[in-house]
Amino acid sequence: MLWRLFHSGRHIERYIHDDAWALVTGASDGIGKALVDELLGRGFNVLIHGRNAAKLERVKEEMLAKHPARQVALVVCDASQVSYGMIEDVVRQVGDRNLTCLVNNLGATERRILPFAKQQWADVEDTTNIGIRFVAQLTRALLPKLVAHQPSVLLNLGSSSQLVHAPFVPVYAATKGFLLTLSQCIDLEMRADGLDVEVLYLDVGEVNTTAHDVGESFIVVSSPSMGKAIVDAVGCGGVFVTPHWHHECVNSVLACLPRRLQDYFVTQSMMPRRLDIVDKKTQ
């Protein structure tokens, strides 16, 4: 919390050099789209990733109208169908651009929010493909570009579900635990080799998005507010950071509670979203 008192929020500007580009995965809407808007506003050109080309084109047009001095390019692929050829194609699409910022925003909850024993093969497969295989292979393939274009920054968007052990989305929460460990290890590698590549794992709490339209509150922040908080957190000095102060307040309160009470509140908040319960109520 105290880092906010001494942090200007402008450290991201350090990575804007020589016609810099950022790549944001899952940029069609929500936090990803907000991050694209924020990065363009700070001075980056941005590669926007998604699986729906038409949707990405609309985002591109909207962003160029708002930021006419910047450039926007598309990277189209379905992260749930990750393969060697697909990752190599993404690398080719990035080409010789001066990539100084990679934002691993894309993540997928289980397709159906259910107890693990009731989930199906496809629920687990899609979540692990997107949350583990795609992010690991994409980062592996693009990290050499970040090294070549240093100083640069790698932003991995995590989730408070990893911190509080959210039930009914166990695989999703586990992918964020994987992402945290990956971030910490890459950070150590960069520092061990004297490389100027900043690595951040961003603990993201609840955000109001098109896919998660629950209304805004102190706990549920807007996508633009989250996007700004994430970019402002760059250069905070640690690998693990909770970018939005609202979520940090919530985490601090939860941390003061006994574990059993934490588990109770988290479980009760997830219960209304369980598909098996929702379906019974609508029958």
From TrEMBL:
PANTHER family of this UniProt entry? RH59310P (PTHR43899:SF13)
- Presence of keyword Ribosomal protein: no
* Molecular function in Gene Ontology: oxidoreductase activity
Q: Which residues form the signal peptide?
A: none
Q: In the UniProt record, does the keyword Oxidoreductase occur?
A: yes
Q: What does the entry list under GO cellular component? A: endoplasmic reticulum
- Source taxonomy: Eukaryota, Fungi, Dikarya, Basidiomycota, Agaricomycotina
Q: Which domain of life is it from?
A: Eukaryota
Taxonomic source organism: Exidia glandulosa HHB12029
InterPro entries found in the cross-reference section = NAD(P)-bd_dom_sf, SDR_fam, VLCFA-Steroid_DH
Instruction: Give the UniProt family note.
Output: Belongs to the short-chain dehydrogenases/reductases (SDR) family.
Sorted UniProt keywords: Oxidoreductase
Q: What is this protein called?
A: NAD(P)-binding protein
